[in-house]
């Protein structure tokens, strides 16, 4: 093989590798999610300032971890959840992709105030286009077991103390 042809082959191979790395880094849900950090958040009653509950959470703070979420998780313990951290406070829509149990989806603004709670039933369809959408506004989203918020009297305007930077 002559040098010119070999040089072109190497350049093409490097280009293909770089495109693959960019795709894995940019498109959510592609590539490994890595290990989830674990933290504890406290839910505070807005009227009494008393602690309602403590939840041990897995932290989803990258696009890959947010996309994966609780998908393919078998269950949650009663005091366990997942905390999704977005770069900015905004309007987000969550779905229950590849879920095997219902959950409560709690939207939380940057000050820690709960702005919206959804009681998300088991999806009846598994295709992304037909999944139920759960919209809300916030910087954080906390997912806990189904009806957790009702069982513990957690409502909109209560606060979630998040000590994660």
From TrEMBL:
Q: Where are the transmembrane segments?
A: 9-30
Organism expressing this protein natively? Haloquadratum walsbyi J07HQW2
Q: Which InterPro entries match?
A: DUF192, Saro_0823-like_sf
Q: What is the lineage of its organism?
A: Archaea, Methanobacteriati, Methanobacteriota, Stenosarchaea group, Halobacteria
PANTHER family, sorted: UPF0127 PROTEIN MJ1496 (PTHR37953)
Q: Give the keywords, sorted.
A: Membrane, Transmembrane, Transmembrane helix
What is the protein's given name? DUF192 domain-containing protein
């Amino acid at each position: 093989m002559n040098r010119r042809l070999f040089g072109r082959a190497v350049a093409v191979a490097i280009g293909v590798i770089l495109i693959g790395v960019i795709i894995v880094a940019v498109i959510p849900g592609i590539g490994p999610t890595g290990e989830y950090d674990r933290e504890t958040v406290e839910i505070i009653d807005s009227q009494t300032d008393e602690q309602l509950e403590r939840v041990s959470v897995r932290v989803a703070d990258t696009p890959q971890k947010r996309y994966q979420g609780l998908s393919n998780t078998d269950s949650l313990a009663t005091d366990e959840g997942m905390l999704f951290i977005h770069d900015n406070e905004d309007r987000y829509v969550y779905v229950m992709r590849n879920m095997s149990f219902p959950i409560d989806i709690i939207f939380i603004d940057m000050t820690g105030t709960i702005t919206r709670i959804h009681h998300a039933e088991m999806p009846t369809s598994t295709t992304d286009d037909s999944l139920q959408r759960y919209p809300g506004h916030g910087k954080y989203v906390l997912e806990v077991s189904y009806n957790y918020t009702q069982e513990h009297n957690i409502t909109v305007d209560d606060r979630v103390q998040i000590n994660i930077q």
